[in-house]
Amino acid sequence: MTHSVFDPRLVPVDAVDRHLPAVERAELQAAALVRRFAHPPQWQAELPGDQSAASGAVLRHAAVLVPIVLRPEPTVLLTQRTAHLRSHAGQIAFPGGRIDPQDVDAADAAQREAWEEVGLERRFVTVLGNLPLYATGSAYSVTPVVALVTPGFSLRTNSHEVAEAFEIPLAHFTDPANHRWHSADWEQRRRQWLSMPYLDAQSQPAPVERYVWGVTAGILRNFYRFLAA
User: 208 pairs with which residues across the strands?
Assistant: First the structure.
């Protein structure tokens, strides 16, 4: 397979983690998330990311915002990248990007990127903390910054980078019955990755499958492990 024609939807599912417990719904509410980050458990990230880039490249530093929107059933705010972008084109992603010299830290960069990409104002965002670094095949070392987002915001997407912004229930990602493992020979090596597709019945004019996979799914898997530890 070559990267230009690779379609993860066509790769068979090797396994589904139905044997792992889901995170209790009460643990997904704001107070429980605040407590978890204030007093984190002993745990280790399951997925460090794609190490193929790390062997021959200097990883650039980036940050993404993992925005937990405080609906009655909390959701994750995600974007679909436009098809013409150089890396991860058309994929579902968190708002985020490269950490610039003027950014104070990863949290500052993640919030700046969320503002630039989808118009999410900082006044609606409360940062909880970071998840472990995640390496990407495009040679980035990504810091996932988890934050609570108070409803009432209005989004304004940057049409150059973002085709669409939408929300998926957090509970979908914290139930391993929705975590599907795949593997394939890709760019001269055997690779394994996760997908967590979600059927968005709220999409208009018709329901659409949100195919979450790759870096985004890997970070969400680590988030599940952090909450389940």
Answer: 200
3-state SS class at 206: coil
Count the helices and strands in the chain (H runs, E runs). Answer: 4, 13
Residue 85, sorted as left (phi over 0), alpha (psi -120 to 50) or beta, turns out to be: beta
CB-based burial label for 39 (10 Å; 0-12, 13-18, 19+): exposed
Q: Which sequence spans correspond to the domains of the chain?
A: 8-228
Helix or strand (DSSP H, E) at 171: helix 170-173
Nearest to 147 by CA among 179, 164, 125, 124: 125
Within 8 A by CB and 6+ apart from 99, the residues are 61, 62, 63, 106, 109, 143
Please state, as a whole number, how many other Cβ atoms lie within 10 Å of the Cβ of residue 27.
15
- pLDDT for 13-62, tens place per residue? 999 999 999 999 999 999 999 999 999 999 999 999 876 654 667 789 99
Distance CA 96, CA 107 (A): 10
- Where does 8-228 sit in CATH, by number? 3.90.79.10
Query: What would the two tokens of residue 207 be?
Result: 């329901």
